[in-house]
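Hi support team,

I've been running sequence recovery on a batch of backbones for a student project. Most finish fine, but this one hangs at about 90% for roughly twenty minutes before it completes. I'm not sure whether the input is malformed or the queue is just slow. I've pasted the structure tokens below so you can try to reproduce it. Let me know if you need the job ID as well.

Thanks,
M.K.
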């Protein structure tokens, strides 16, 4: 009696598994638009086996099923049944996605970005293991033309600073001179800056 009940429960679970596989295989053949309009439900709750295998069969997983067959003529019916079962199971298509929280994803992307930036710095000769605040060497020495432009820029900044000091001294000694000319100190400064770039 007990063996009969166990065998019956196993057959019922395998039948439910076959129904789930058939439904999933049919759904895999549908287009996304047809799938939305389809009212067919996958019967995962028909047995404990299909409920346990729900994520593996039609969820977020990659699953491998092994079909054991026999070359013996005595096992022809079981082999044929197993091959049909395997054929239906092979038609199921799952799209597995890595389960990752938004925080873990952001951390992973930032680590990838840091690695990429370190590789870029290393490729141009900048040491990436320097202490924070350390003075790093120039990436490439300036060309003679760039040095000439930097020297000219420094000279213009020095001239602008000297003229700015003169203007401030004049404005401090004669407060009404700006009102007589009709310009404010800020207007004069902006005019000088435009003039000298």
């Amino acid at each position: 009696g007990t063996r009969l009940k166990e065998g019956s429960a196993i057959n019922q679970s395998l039948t439910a598994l076959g129904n789930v596989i058939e439904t999933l295989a049919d759904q895999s053949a549908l287009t996304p638009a047809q799938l939305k309009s389809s009212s067919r439900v996958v019967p995962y709750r028909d047995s404990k086996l299909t409920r346990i295998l729900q994520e593996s069969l039609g969820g977020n997983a990659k699953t491998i099923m092994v079909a054991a067959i026999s070359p013996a003529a005595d096992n022809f019916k079981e082999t044929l049944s197993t091959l049909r079962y395997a054929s239906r199971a092979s038609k199921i298509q799952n799209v597995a996605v890595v389960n990752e929280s938004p925080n873990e994803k952001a951390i992973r992307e930032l680590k990838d970005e840091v690695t990429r930036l370190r590789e870029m710095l290393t490729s141009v000769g900048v040491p990436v293991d320097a202490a924070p605040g350390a003075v790093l060497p120039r990436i490439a020495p300036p060309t003679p033309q760039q040095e000439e432009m930097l020297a000219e820029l420094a000279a213009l900044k020095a001239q602008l600073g000297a003229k700015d000091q003169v203007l401030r001294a004049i404005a401090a000694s004669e407060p009404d001179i700006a009102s007589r000319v009709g310009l404010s100190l800020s207007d004069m400064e902006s005019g000088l800056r435009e003039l000298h770039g």
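--
Follow-up from support: It reproduced on our side and the slowdown came from queue contention, not your input. Residues 144-173 form the longest helix (30 residues). No action needed from you.
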